[in-house]
Design goal:
The protein is of the alpha/beta class and about 160 residues long. The chain is about 25% helix and about 20% strand. The protein is built from four helices and eight strands, in the order βαβαβββαββαβ. The protein has a five-stranded mixed sheet, covered by helices on one side. A three-stranded mixed sheet has the order 6-7-8, with no helix packed on it. About 10% of the residues are buried.
Length: about 160
Protein backbone atom coordinates (compact mmCIF):
# COMPACT_ATOMS: atom_id res chain seq x y z
CA UNK A 1 0.00 0.00 0.00
CA UNK A 2 1.64 3.20 -1.11
CA UNK A 3 0.70 6.61 0.22
CA UNK A 4 -0.11 9.22 -2.37
CA UNK A 5 0.14 12.87 -1.30
CA UNK A 6 -3.21 14.65 -1.48
CA UNK A 7 -2.04 18.18 -0.90
CA UNK A 8 1.17 20.15 -0.51
CA UNK A 9 1.33 19.55 3.27
CA UNK A 10 1.48 15.81 2.67
CA UNK A 11 3.99 15.99 -0.17
CA UNK A 12 6.90 15.82 2.26
CA UNK A 13 5.82 12.25 3.18
CA UNK A 14 7.22 9.85 0.59
CA UNK A 15 7.38 6.13 0.21
CA UNK A 16 5.27 3.31 1.54
CA UNK A 17 3.78 3.18 5.02
CA UNK A 18 3.27 -0.58 4.78
CA UNK A 19 4.64 -3.41 2.70
CA UNK A 20 2.65 -6.63 2.35
CA UNK A 21 4.50 -9.48 0.68
CA UNK A 22 4.33 -13.17 -0.04
CA UNK A 23 7.42 -15.23 0.76
CA UNK A 24 8.06 -18.00 -1.75
CA UNK A 25 9.20 -16.63 -5.07
CA UNK A 26 8.87 -13.07 -3.78
CA UNK A 27 11.04 -12.38 -0.72
CA UNK A 28 12.66 -15.82 -0.77
CA UNK A 29 14.92 -17.00 -3.56
CA UNK A 30 14.53 -20.32 -5.38
CA UNK A 31 16.19 -22.19 -2.53
CA UNK A 32 13.69 -20.78 -0.03
CA UNK A 33 16.18 -18.38 1.56
CA UNK A 34 16.05 -14.68 2.35
CA UNK A 35 19.05 -13.05 0.67
CA UNK A 36 21.25 -10.79 2.80
CA UNK A 37 20.38 -7.82 0.56
CA UNK A 38 16.63 -8.42 0.94
CA UNK A 39 16.96 -8.83 4.72
CA UNK A 40 19.01 -5.62 4.97
CA UNK A 41 16.53 -3.70 2.80
CA UNK A 42 13.56 -4.84 4.89
CA UNK A 43 15.39 -4.06 8.15
CA UNK A 44 16.20 -0.55 6.88
CA UNK A 45 12.58 0.05 5.86
CA UNK A 46 11.14 -1.19 9.15
CA UNK A 47 13.62 0.96 11.11
CA UNK A 48 12.31 3.92 9.09
CA UNK A 49 8.80 3.15 10.34
CA UNK A 50 7.46 1.11 7.42
CA UNK A 51 5.18 -1.68 8.65
CA UNK A 52 5.95 -5.12 7.23
CA UNK A 53 3.22 -7.74 6.80
CA UNK A 54 4.12 -11.20 5.53
CA UNK A 55 1.35 -13.21 3.88
CA UNK A 56 1.90 -16.88 3.15
CA UNK A 57 0.45 -20.35 2.99
CA UNK A 58 3.16 -21.47 5.38
CA UNK A 59 2.60 -22.18 9.05
CA UNK A 60 3.35 -19.30 11.43
CA UNK A 61 5.95 -21.24 13.45
CA UNK A 62 7.83 -22.10 10.29
CA UNK A 63 7.85 -18.46 9.18
CA UNK A 64 9.04 -17.19 12.57
CA UNK A 65 11.89 -19.72 12.55
CA UNK A 66 12.95 -18.61 9.06
CA UNK A 67 13.29 -15.01 10.25
CA UNK A 68 14.85 -15.77 13.66
CA UNK A 69 18.31 -14.71 12.42
CA UNK A 70 17.06 -11.23 11.46
CA UNK A 71 16.08 -8.15 13.46
CA UNK A 72 12.85 -7.82 11.49
CA UNK A 73 9.57 -7.13 13.17
CA UNK A 74 6.51 -8.03 11.13
CA UNK A 75 2.87 -8.91 11.29
CA UNK A 76 1.95 -12.23 9.75
CA UNK A 77 -0.94 -13.70 7.81
CA UNK A 78 -0.28 -17.43 7.61
CA UNK A 79 -1.84 -20.74 6.64
CA UNK A 80 -3.47 -19.16 3.58
CA UNK A 81 -5.30 -16.61 5.73
CA UNK A 82 -6.42 -18.98 8.47
CA UNK A 83 -4.17 -17.27 11.04
CA UNK A 84 -3.09 -13.66 11.60
CA UNK A 85 -0.58 -12.37 14.14
CA UNK A 86 0.57 -8.90 15.16
CA UNK A 87 4.21 -7.81 15.37
CA UNK A 88 4.59 -9.23 18.89
CA UNK A 89 3.37 -12.66 17.73
CA UNK A 90 -0.03 -12.38 19.39
CA UNK A 91 -2.65 -14.30 17.44
CA UNK A 92 -5.37 -11.98 16.17
CA UNK A 93 -7.38 -14.35 13.99
CA UNK A 94 -7.84 -18.12 13.83
CA UNK A 95 -10.23 -19.76 11.39
CA UNK A 96 -10.51 -23.51 11.92
CA UNK A 97 -12.32 -26.16 9.95
CA UNK A 98 -14.82 -28.29 11.83
CA UNK A 99 -13.94 -31.93 12.49
CA UNK A 100 -16.66 -32.92 10.03
CA UNK A 101 -15.08 -30.77 7.30
CA UNK A 102 -11.64 -32.22 8.01
CA UNK A 103 -12.96 -35.80 7.93
CA UNK A 104 -14.65 -35.18 4.58
CA UNK A 105 -11.55 -33.63 3.03
CA UNK A 106 -9.35 -36.49 4.24
CA UNK A 107 -11.81 -39.11 2.99
CA UNK A 108 -11.84 -37.53 -0.46
CA UNK A 109 -8.05 -37.14 -0.54
CA UNK A 110 -7.49 -40.79 0.39
CA UNK A 111 -9.53 -41.94 -2.61
CA UNK A 112 -7.66 -39.79 -5.12
CA UNK A 113 -4.46 -41.76 -5.45
CA UNK A 114 -1.14 -39.95 -5.53
CA UNK A 115 -1.87 -37.14 -3.07
CA UNK A 116 0.48 -36.16 -0.27
CA UNK A 117 -1.84 -35.40 2.59
CA UNK A 118 -0.62 -32.93 5.21
CA UNK A 119 -2.96 -31.89 8.01
CA UNK A 120 -2.12 -29.12 10.46
CA UNK A 121 -3.51 -29.29 13.95
CA UNK A 122 -2.91 -26.56 16.51
CA UNK A 123 0.38 -28.11 17.58
CA UNK A 124 1.90 -29.81 14.55
CA UNK A 125 1.79 -30.83 10.92
CA UNK A 126 0.68 -34.44 10.44
CA UNK A 127 1.58 -36.52 7.39
CA UNK A 128 0.67 -40.03 6.30
CA UNK A 129 4.04 -40.56 4.66
CA UNK A 130 7.12 -38.42 4.25
CA UNK A 131 7.95 -37.22 0.77
CA UNK A 132 11.07 -35.44 -0.56
CA UNK A 133 9.87 -31.88 0.01
CA UNK A 134 8.93 -32.47 3.66
CA UNK A 135 11.97 -34.64 4.39
CA UNK A 136 14.31 -31.84 3.24
CA UNK A 137 12.53 -29.26 5.38
CA UNK A 138 12.61 -31.57 8.40
CA UNK A 139 16.38 -32.07 7.94
CA UNK A 140 16.84 -28.30 7.77
CA UNK A 141 14.90 -27.96 11.02
CA UNK A 142 12.41 -25.69 9.31
CA UNK A 143 9.31 -27.86 9.82
CA UNK A 144 8.19 -30.35 12.40
CA UNK A 145 5.98 -33.23 11.32
CA UNK A 146 4.37 -36.21 12.96
CA UNK A 147 3.89 -39.36 10.94
CA UNK A 148 0.38 -40.81 11.23
CA UNK A 149 -1.30 -43.82 9.74
CA UNK A 150 -4.62 -43.59 7.92
CA UNK A 151 -6.51 -43.81 11.23
CA UNK A 152 -4.62 -40.91 12.84
CA UNK A 153 -2.44 -43.12 15.06
CA UNK A 154 1.18 -42.04 15.47
CA UNK A 155 3.75 -44.28 13.78
Amino acid sequence: ILSTPRNTKEQSVRGPKMIVSDLDGTLFDRSGQLSPLTAQTLETLTKQGVSLVLATGRHHRDVRSLFAHTDLTFSLISSNGARAFDESGTRLVAHNLTLRQVARIIAIALTCGDIHLIVYTEGSWNVLEPFPHTEERIRQGRLSFRLRNRHGVKR
